[in-house]
Specification:
The protein has about 775 residues and is α+β, with helices and mostly antiparallel strands. Helix content is about 40%, strand content about 15%. A 4-stranded antiparallel sheet has the order 4-11-6-9, with no helix packed on it. A 4-stranded antiparallel sheet has the order 5-10-7-8, with no helix packed on it. The protein has a two-stranded antiparallel ribbon with strand order 1-2.
């Protein structure tokens, strides 16, 4: 996020009054003595704190003070100054001043490009590592179980990844050894095991997406079986606090599925008179012969016909709490997969086909020379993809050394390949994205990154993974310097299924969807909330964003859409009729003039993640909109400002009146006067995204406003106000994407590039692909600055 200072009304008025800014000359003449000390701290109640000064600035020498003028232009462009209540210029005056300032800044940037500097060494984060392993070796792993969390910076977890501590290196080494063993299918010394648990707040009364129709509850596990052989699948059922199996009032069948085919079935019965619940599921251990590779393991129950419960009120959709809403049938707690027993070999897995291809089998390699030649043939394409460039003889030297060590003493050819792959996976050339400065370049010089570095930037931007052979080949030929060929590569990559990364990785962080898992609304106030609803909310937003990205719709439709994606559980929560089943489908509200659902601001995921556990928060919602949709978040509060004290302010008052307490404090008012009105517009939605027109038997007041002076009613009015100037949303969207693409925070010198991206997008109706192409062709993406 660009840091933006707060300007006094006098400073902005002086800028508007400066005749030079409206002169016919393209470059503004000097603006003398605008004001000194124009920056005020937002929380200092009007006290000047000389963070920045216009004293001595000369607009004729604008490039020397470009960062300050970028701040000025940004504030004016967002109509955030002069403050509300002060005399303001008309729209035409705003536009003329902004056009002059940004035009001068853009010309200066074109004459002297400043692309900023990305880190020379950037470690692959967990998501990138997981995707790279998938594309390199054909092995699907859970990187969260192998590597520690990556701390986010500037809103994304691919920014602060320059370090590699000894502890983290040990984790990467352990991960590499495990992955290489799985990929090759090396036999374990002893059978291994993995346990998968279902969250305790998952309701298992209805169908689980991915499992066959006619079943209910359970779990679906994509699991990689390293070898052909026998595997034991053990199931344990959910228990209550008394250690009794929940919902088990009569016998129930339980099924084990492999790739949706039933391979085992058993019956669980209530305990006898001794109430020994441990014996209930002790027999749920199934030994199955399984072929190597990734298989879908399902454990579920046949579904009985749904009967209408004879309650005085509608039954809850959630059932997992033994006191408030107990389960009506047993549920799966965990599944443990152990094996292989009686292993019969590595089998024919996608990973082995990817590694060994058409190479001769180990039995045909009778001499060490033949083995080394085969190892070179196998390792060369793998190392090329892993290191993201053509390789040299020196690149092969160390992996071959590991190959010889691994295959020595009768361990065999494939054991040698496993050791060589481990060496590749712990190499800095794989673990780090390295962008080296050209030799003998002068300090502070802007230069184009190499074609291969550009290919890596492109693939990690769009896929969060390695460039494929087609992209590496194009970079090696120099095709990426041709704008048309570069565009063709971008469009090819966007059409690839790996581009879903922009939804599950970029959008999940931009929209704070990752925070949903940590949200647990108060169970007394929101008794019908469970993990099924939480995941349905997240899935709605992911499918909605994916549809706009995949169909190349205008990004403004993220706000204006009159449709969304629902399944029965979420539709029930939203009170949308005629939606049945676990499968999500597109639901249109185009014919509903009073529609409650549609774009992002109406999604339960965002409304929930921007609320407290017990109530809505106009402050958090307003800040979220300002930071993520408008691009002008207020600064954080000073440390000495107290929180809203509900012991002093009556909790029975409407939230608007309670928040008035903050605005009575001058240190808080300047920011809360901007945030709160934006959040108030969403007060028709409660803390879990349900629509309401009343709160505590009082009508909800949804009047709100923006810092540019716009006033509106409710979420529809807020959407219209935001889309009155769609370029602001497009610029903010581009800024978030650029941060994600570069792996660094956006700074003032990126302003000209962001404006160019927004102009390109506006010329193409703000289509998603036009934003992506604008970023790929931008100076910060294609260039780098020497230290």
């Amino acid at each position: 996020m660009l840091p933006t200072p707060r300007f006094t009304a006098f400073a902005l008025a002086s800028i508007f009054a400066a005749p030079a800014l409206f002169a016919a000359e393209p470059r503004p003449d000097p603006v003398n003595a605008l004001v000194s000390k124009y920056c005020l701290d937002c929380h200092d109640a009007g006290t000047k704190k000389g963070g920045l000064s216009l004293e001595g600035l000369d607009s004729a020498k604008l490039p020397a003070d470009a960062a300050i003028w970028e701040h000025v232009a940004r504030k004016l462009h967002h109509r955030q100054m002069p403050p509300l209540g002060e005399a303001r210029p008309d729209t035409a005056s705003y536009e003329r001043v902004v056009a002059v300032l940004t035009g001068s800044l853009d010309r200066a940037a074109a004459a002297q490009p400043n692309p900023g500097r990305t880190d020379t060494f950037r470690r692959l984060n967990r998501t990138e590592y997981q995707n790279a392993i998938r594309d390199l070796l054909g092995v699907t792993i859970d990187a969260t179980a192998l590597l520690p969390n990556d701390e986010p910076s500037h809103g994304f977890d691919n920014v602060a990844v320059g370090n590699l501590s000894p502890t983290l290196l040990d984790r990467y080494v352990s991960a590499a050894q495990k992955i290489a063993r799985l990929a090759v299918g090396t036999p374990r010394k002893a059978p291994g095991g993995d346990t998968f648990r279902v969250r305790p707040d998952v309701t298992q009364e209805e169908h689980v997406e991915g499992l066959p129709l006619g079943t209910r509850g359970g779990i679906l596990i994509p699991y990689f079986f390293p070898q052909d052989g026998d595997y034991e699948i053990a199931v344990r059922l959910q228990r209550d606090r008394n250690e009794q199996v929940e919902g088990l009032r009569r016998p129930h069948e339980i099924e084990v599925l492999l790739d949706r085919e039933r391979v085992a079935v058993a019956t669980v019965k209530p305990p006898g008179a001794d109430k020994n619940a441990e014996a209930v599921d002790r027999h749920l251990k199934f030994v199955l012969a399984v072929k190597a590779g990734t298989r879908d393991v399902g454990v579920t129950f046949p579904k009985d016909p749904s009967a209408v419960l004879e309650n005085e009120r509608a039954p809850f959709a959630s059932r997992f709490n033994m006191h408030r809403h107990p389960r009506t049938a047993p549920a799966v707690f965990q599944v443990t997969i152990t094996g292989p027993f009686d292993a019969k070999g590595a089998g024919d897995t996608p990973s082995r086909r990817l590694i060994f291809g058409n190479s001769p089998t180990a039995a045909k390699l009778t001499t060490s020379a033949e083995q080394e030649a085969a190892a070179r043939e196998i390792l060369t394409p793998i190392i090329r993809r892993a290191y993201r460039r053509p390789i040299t003889a020196d690149d092969l030297r160390r992996p071959l050394q590991f190959f010889h060590e691994g295959s020595a003493e009768g361990a065999g050819f494939e054991a040698g390949i496993e050791h060589a792959l481990t060496a590749v996976l712990v190499s800095p050339q794989f673990l780090f994205r390295i962008e080296a400065d050209p030799k003998d370049i002068a300090p502070g010089t802007a230069y184009r990154v190499s074609d291969l570095e550009l290919a890596s930037r492109l693939s990690f931007f769009l896929w969060s993974s390695l460039p494929d052979d087609s992209l590496i080949d194009a970079a090696t030929r120099g095709d990426l310097r041709d704008a048309a060929k570069l565009d063709a590569q971008v469009r090819r990559m966007l059409a690839d299924d790996r581009a879903k990364n922009l939804v599950t990785n970029f959008a999940a962080q931009w929209l704070h969807l990752r925070g949903l898992d940590a949200i647990t609304p108060d169970a007394r106030r929101f008794i019908d909330f469970d993990d099924n609803l939480r995941q349905a909310m997240r899935r709605e937003t992911e499918l909605f964003v994916e549809s706009i990205f995949r169909e190349d719709r205008p990004v403004t439709e993220l706000l204006s859409a009159d449709y969304t994606f629902l399944n029965e559980r979420l539709a029930h929560h939203y009170k949308v009729p005629h939606v049945f089943g676990s499968q999500f489908r597109r639901v249109s509200f185009a014919d509903d003039p009073a529609r409650q659902r549609g774009g992002l601001l109406r999604h339960g995921s965002i409304l929930t993640v921007t609320s407290y556990a017990t109530r809505t928060s106009p402050v958090i919602r307003g800040h979220w909109i300002l930071a993520n949709l408008i691009g002008e978040p207020p600064p954080p509060p000073p440390p000495n400002v107290p929180s809203l004290d509900e012991g002093v302010v009556s909790a029975t008052l409407p939230i608007r009146q309670r928040l008035a307490k903050h605005r009575e404090n001058p240190a808080c008012a300047s920011c809360h006067n901007v945030m709160d009105p934006v959040g108030f517009a969403l007060e028709n939605f409660d803390a879990v995204g349900r629509w309401r027109s009343e709160e505590d038997h009082r009508p909800v007041d949804v009047s709100g406003g923006l810092a540019d002076g716009s006033i509106f009613e409710g979420v529809a009015g807020l959407e219209r106000a935001l889309l009155q100037r769609p370029e602001l949303f497009a610029e903010t969207f581009a800024e978030k994407l650029l941060t994600f693409a570069l792996g660094r925070g956006v700074a003032a010198h990126d302003g000209p590039a962001l404006r160019a991206i927004a102009r390109r997008a506006q010329a193409d109706s703000f289509r998603f692909s036009s934003v992506i192409l604008g970023i790929v062709h931008s100076v910060p993406f294609q260039m780098r600055k020497s230290p």
